[in-house]
Design a protein that fits this description.
The protein is an alpha/beta fold. It contains 7 helices and 8 strands; from the N terminus they run αβββαβααβαββαβα. A hairpin with a 2-residue loop joins strand 1 and strand 2.
Amino acid sequence: MDEQAIREGLYVAHFVQHRINSGYIQIMDGERSLPAFWAHPQIGGTFPGLVLIHGERGLNNQIRMRVRRFAELGYYVIAPELFSAPSSTDDVQACRAALRRGGESPVLAALQVLRTHNRLNGKLGVVGWSSGGEIAFRIALTQLDLKAAAIFGGNPQPVLSELHNDQTAILALYGDDDPEVPPVTLNKLWEELARSKARWQMIVYPNVANDFKDEASPRYHPYYAADAWRRCVEFLRELLEPPAPAVSLKVNARA
């Protein structure tokens, strides 16, 4: 893919965009009230739903931007805050441990909000980054009504032995130079996805770690990040079928 095509992938300009509303809401996880960021098209019919699953950096501006961007493309989107207590993003290992302990429950709560919303068309997907990608794998294995999971990094090792049972379409996007997910694990992930009956794609970018898509990382790779974003958008669009906004064209003509 040439440089111009990759740059265009960053913006996915050929998809029509909806006007949206966005902001913070509270969702219920059992008896707990959790903060989440929410965005959706302002008008129209029914839409598919997406839950975005943040990684170690939390519900930051990058995640909120992606919530808005997916809403513009025709989704109802929720990104729940997965940290139950304030967490320093400088302590990456502590953040990962916190997400492994308690990150799944808020995602399930966000999915339930979407399931019961009267503007949803019944099609659901998740998108996870880094440790959020690990949660996305688990969600894909347990939520049978989930149509698609797009996973940007995240160690698949805890679920490798179960992936052959997967029924959710999976897009997995990785770098091949990451100590957390070495080539041997990537090879095993490929083998296990190939054993499943579900639809899947796996893209491995050369000479980058899995934070290639993180704009705050010194290892950010803008062209790979743009290509991965384009693939994600097209994958979800095909499976979840977000509607284009109704466009009224007015033509002025002179006799």
